Amino acid sequence: MSEQCELCREDGGEVIHRNDRLRVVLVDDADYPGFCRVIWNAHVAEMSDLPPADRAILMRAVCQVESALREVLQPEKINLASLGNMVPHLHWHVIPRFADDAHFPHPIWAQAVRQTAVEVLAARRALLPALRAAIARHVACEG
Amino acid sequence: MSEQCELCREDGGEVIHRNDRLRVVLVDDADYPGFCRVIWNAHVAEMSDLPPADRAILMRAVCQVESALREVLQPEKINLASLGNMVPHLHWHVIPRFADDAHFPHPIWAQAVRQTAVEVLAARRALLPALRAAIARHVACEG
Questions:
Q1: Does the pTM exceed 0.90?
Q2: What DSSP letter does each residue of B101-141 carry, written as one string?
């Protein structure tokens, strides 16, 4: 626990799943409906700061979220990233990418290359209830 | 194997370690000495396309490279990412980040915010022989 760390103080999004080790949150990003983060609860900076068993638990959750995103949103690609340069508290971005999204085929941190049509984004947002259910199902299935 | 895929056709960098499942390559990036990639040998797009045992093997290698980078380069942060929007062949970026690098604290895919001093980059490049040795040692140690 670090008092300066926003991921120690706050959930970091809408919590879809939480256990004693980690939480899965849905990020409220207008351009990326379905963008999730898997956040380790304890204040640790790097994957290699975790014991191997905990790394495995964290990556299993990341892959469960990836599977749920693929199932419900059927994206072109999934992007996974653990950066933490600004918030050095271990968290994984799990991002569904589409050929018509704001940055494709570039990373979402690059300059935007288009604006996705509002009705396309609305259709993806309409799938969020199904995504919440799929994530709950995937994390329950594999423990 | 896909004939259109550059990571099926080519190594994708200087190979530091290779086994039957994956390879670790050193990327020749002028701004990021020590930037490595861990590339799955078979043509697979997503982590969740791999069986769980293979995912674990891949992430173990990613963490071994992370550990070697931390030991030799002592970066401010490690960035891990599996994107693959342009080359949908599973590969992990393992990037040592420094407060004085071209994009810090932003991801390396954002717009550059500075030019790192040439002598600083040269000093980091001078550590690459030690990095090659450390990666070889880490992958040997833990299998």
A1: yes
A2: SSSTTS-TTS-------HHHHHHHHTTHHHHHHHHHHHHHH
